[in-house]
Amino acid sequence: MLHLRVIVPREKSDAVRRLLEAEAGVTHLVVWPGAAVSPPGDVMSCDVAREAANTVLEDLRHLGIDDDGAIVLEDLDVVLSRSAREAELAAPGEGADAVVWEQITEVTSEESTISVTFLAFLTLATMIAACGVLLDNPILIVGAMVVGPEFGPLAGLCVAVVQRRPRLAARSAFALLAGFPIAMALTMVFTWLLTWSGEFEKAMLEAERPLTAFIYQPDWLSFWVAFLAGIAGMMSLTSSKSGALIGVLISVTTVPAAANTAVAIAYGDLEQAAGSLGQLLLNLCAIVLSGSLTLLGQRLYWNRTHGSRSRHETLAASRPPAQRWPQAGRTKD
């Protein structure tokens, strides 16, 4: 379930309370009249079944609460309550299938903004991958994949495409278009420094590398792996399965391809640089394509199966609280 906290202007308090009481997927409603100081108003908190979150958030935004007050939503790990179980049963659909659009938009928007931290992680990941490709060491390659933060902007592009958010698309694209060249340029300097110190040499790049040769040899298999990873990555974000996202990060060849491109340019091997750059672009395009299609499919599925309630559910939700809850009250211990 999700926990919702709302700061409501006094003049809208009754409307918001009726809204929350009428929603079958809402429980544990608590109201603190006049408790909010900045912005001033009443404070209401409740727990919301994930399946009902989009409806509640849309209704609150329709009332202008996001402008006049505040809406805070957070995940709950453990909820032990009979009324919570009843709320989840009353809400249409399954929580694992529900996509909370406001939540996924906030997450991707935050991770799609270029920053010093984003550039630092991307640069460090590219440098680690540079060591991996020259040493033909897959362990370093996997480590670089996990460190790389590039999936955030890629997910932001997917959300922007499906929800038609040009600002998010521009911000995500800028993070990628500026982040990778900066990381690659710094990795070239890193390569020259280690070559000067005797740790690297051009022969390492040109030697046979059976474990990492795939990085600069793009093919259709690379496309399909990235395509499938994009689906898994987007589903891990929408369902909050962070463990699955880690698996996605170590299955796509973005950061390693960028690292091999930088090293190849540093040593003047333009043919290998072109192959690595092709691998990078292939992976980026495949992830954005599959991620966008996944989000679109999730939205169409949810709208088709749960977008509108049945007449019985609508009538039940419109009844006053006293008429809706007596049966639940009789089942309590």
From TrEMBL:
This is DUF389 domain-containing protein. Coiled coil: none annotated. It comes from the Bacteria. Residues 312-333 are annotated as: Disordered. The chain crosses the membrane at residues 116-135, 141-162, 174-194, 214-237, 244-268, 280-302. Pfam families: DUF389. It comes from Yinghuangia soli. NCBIfam families: uncharacterized hydrophobic domain (TIGR00271). Keywords: Membrane, Transmembrane, Transmembrane helix.
